Request: fold
Amino acid sequence: MTATEQSATLLATLGGEFYTSAAVFAAEQAEIFENSWICAVRAADLAQPGQFKKVQIGRESVLVVRARDGLLRAFLNVCRHRGAQLCTESEGQVRRTLRCPYHAWTYALDGKLVAAPNIVALTDNTGAAIDRYRYGLVPVALTEWLGYVWVCLADVPPSFEETVVGEVTLRLGDAAAIDRYGVEGLKLGHRIVYDVAANWKLIVENFMECYHCSSIHPELVDVLPEFARGMAAQSFVGHGAEFGSDITGFTVDGSPGFGTLPGLSDEQDRRYFAITVRPSVFVNLVPDHIILHRMYPLAADRTVVECDWLYAPDVVAAGHDVTRSVELFHRVNQQDFEACERTQPAMSSRAYRHGGVLVPAEHHLAEFHQWVVSRLGMSDGCARG
Amino acid sequence: MTATEQSATLLATLGGEFYTSAAVFAAEQAEIFENSWICAVRAADLAQPGQFKKVQIGRESVLVVRARDGLLRAFLNVCRHRGAQLCTESEGQVRRTLRCPYHAWTYALDGKLVAAPNIVALTDNTGAAIDRYRYGLVPVALTEWLGYVWVCLADVPPSFEETVVGEVTLRLGDAAAIDRYGVEGLKLGHRIVYDVAANWKLIVENFMECYHCSSIHPELVDVLPEFARGMAAQSFVGHGAEFGSDITGFTVDGSPGFGTLPGLSDEQDRRYFAITVRPSVFVNLVPDHIILHRMYPLAADRTVVECDWLYAPDVVAAGHDVTRSVELFHRVNQQDFEACERTQPAMSSRAYRHGGVLVPAEHHLAEFHQWVVSRLGMSDGCARG
Amino acid sequence: MTATEQSATLLATLGGEFYTSAAVFAAEQAEIFENSWICAVRAADLAQPGQFKKVQIGRESVLVVRARDGLLRAFLNVCRHRGAQLCTESEGQVRRTLRCPYHAWTYALDGKLVAAPNIVALTDNTGAAIDRYRYGLVPVALTEWLGYVWVCLADVPPSFEETVVGEVTLRLGDAAAIDRYGVEGLKLGHRIVYDVAANWKLIVENFMECYHCSSIHPELVDVLPEFARGMAAQSFVGHGAEFGSDITGFTVDGSPGFGTLPGLSDEQDRRYFAITVRPSVFVNLVPDHIILHRMYPLAADRTVVECDWLYAPDVVAAGHDVTRSVELFHRVNQQDFEACERTQPAMSSRAYRHGGVLVPAEHHLAEFHQWVVSRLGMSDGCARG
Reply:
């Protein structure tokens, strides 16, 4: 106790309105999700030319398609003529073109308008030719990394290296560390989609801290005993949580998993690393598989989370049973999302008007809060007001 | 290509916000649907004194009732005392009065307050008599045409002749053309109600153009081969689309319909005429029947459409099978409404912020867009901004 | 008729917007329901230490709990750490503490923070001790009366005596009248929860007047014949409606009830008294039981009503059949709530923009309207504007 007799003050979180306001959510969609690189599709899901997937990015429906030249491209899912959605199914395959079923405007897989019925040579009524790219599909910036297609709706996308790759490097402490897992060469072993009645930031905050691990994750704490102390792997640069001495694999019962991925260093074996790639990706690294979460916020109080379990190609090819490793993180997911759903309703309470508090083991969450506030162009005082 | 090397520009549609904004929809309800003549009820549905129907006009629940004197009248469906809805059922029949079930205030079928329990001689507590019309049901303007009851919520309704009749005359090019069908004397053969997840203006635009006919209406194009060229009958004054040479009736398979309606001119036989009566009625004329659509917009993205198939009285009286003619336009309706529902979600995309484009075959839609904009009291620049 | 030949004018109600506007509803939650004493829980429902109930008060989830010292306390249902709801079940029992399941922050039943994992001696990261009440549960003011727990979310609650007790005394005309029923000692015989699609004020207005009794309450009018004249017991101070001469009990068929409660005066026997305790409680007194309604407004057009039937302890202990007395007011409730639900949709009509009218038998409702307007800080002109 100090001489002035003041009692200690804990660090504050964001105020409750950040988790409930439709206006804040709309600003987040515009300033964060439509302005950042977003992990959209596993590239291997679009192996063949003409294959496409429809993904919700911010408030936009985006088509990711593999063109005839083998390259992936992304477009807004809107016909330039009268605005019909080109694709209403979540995925599919076409031969050479995307054809709007309403008036048959037809686009090449690079977006160019190649046909429109009854417009002779695509001229307007003065006879002048129309620009087939100007009236082509609206393109969306796209890159590939870790075997995923990342897209960005911004007119001028931020640097992928500095944002996405930079966050992974900053967490692992070493630019080469992620490469050793060879994530782009892994195969999908299992995928589960969760529909969570909670704000996306509650899911991020939950993923970033481990103060709750001893309360709600008994299976995970059995595998990673240090998590019982409440310090998240993400509190430290380059730290991976070590498996318990009697644990033989990252599975629901600690039983053996599969062979260690070939490129890993000794410091990466028998360790669990967790990385938050803001705004919406979580990467979980263990010696024999990777778990990757993608979040799609649909409303201030609703977020869809797609979770992939990736394994070495031979594990998937041989049809090995991945149930026990899937089950471990599936339970963690369920436990986490239930906690987030229990928290969401209290965000509108007067008790949370100025937010809650962070204990020392959660102090790294404050940086996430500051990042959100700065992305929304708010001052810190306003955000916590 | 001109000397300045500019490429051609297509005519723009309304911007996407016109189809999604709750504020625009509220303005449309106030300025368009509550300020125009709206086709409410087939008069023959209210044949007997005391019969009533409840209809949604703009944001108001309206009762249309046939009074003891045989005349039709319309009122707001609200008791003047404490506001209970007089009728909650969609239709019914009373003897001499409409009686509010809450406190038993009772109104004659001309709207006059005729009884209120325990108010001696309908005086207030000073003993002064109350005005039985002032506290009677709120009347709504009403007229009859084509066998339908049209109502208008405006304090000063526009001229029915200049608006409703005027639009029909303008399209057919001849004030007497519609009269020759004798629509008011026809009988209802079939009615289907559709609940469409799309803005009402998308439904109007779809009805007005035929550029989509070859894409989505195979049965209709079989009957009306010129529709394959994409020019709507509505692009021309007085033009009816001609039946194909091997077509014997306006039916789903081109098989014979019923006898040509007695008053038709030769120019009206073997022809399909389509008329849009803004804001919410479509009239389809063929030699042996009439198809009339009424739209009731419930939200920016939801519209109920009621479609009547009308035949000569002897066709209905004899119980002739109308299935094949009903099936043709029922399929057209389903095809059209599915296209509108596919379009609605894209209206909120940034790709449609400034609207889409009109091809020459759709240029007459621009006049509809200008009408909407002017009715909302917006400038054109604002509307397309 | 006066010399100026004006016809009589009836007193106006509140305008329709008061019953439909989300903004008005939010203001009512803040200024009325979160600023008044609200009847929350029957105290006997929390007989044992550790028993708790979760109640919605205004926009807040409130926990009412009986502590180890036998006293009742109320708290916001929000963990002070990261905002999870402490209890998601509607009721339950704990041993000595309320423990948040997310991070295991643990509170004594007086709200004090007694444990938080991994925070040594509850210090912050400077080593300073944190204030265990500052970070304890947020307390809510609480008192007991009539055997119920009443809570108030206001920082400075109004006088319970002047508001709640004052309203009962004002209605009964005598401070001792309510005491003679010994309501706090009665036992719960039956409870029904109604979910009503209507604004809470429509339910209050309906309860306050009896002009509708002859229209919709045949069973009640059989028991209380004077109600056929439309004057509510609440129109007069100290007036109880007298049972009909052939009525032997306050039951659905007038058959005998139970013994008269021991303390009643002769003036209270064979009488029905009704009291509105604003904003949300109705008390109904008859010689052998009490019916108490509590309203919980959830939206401008939705209100949950919980209705308790209370009897002398020996009636409940002996397991006497209370069906016939429950059935009488259950029918009245159903009839009333159906009338309110029929009224709610018309509140948004232009016909009710400036409200409806009050007949002389309803003039006491105007005082309720003025109370609402003054609580919302509006001028009367504004309210009726």
Chain B touches chain A through 35 residues (CB under 8 Å). Chain B is about 20% helix and 25% strand. The two ends of chain B are 28 Å apart (CA to CA). Residues 323-343 of chain B form the longest helix (21 residues).
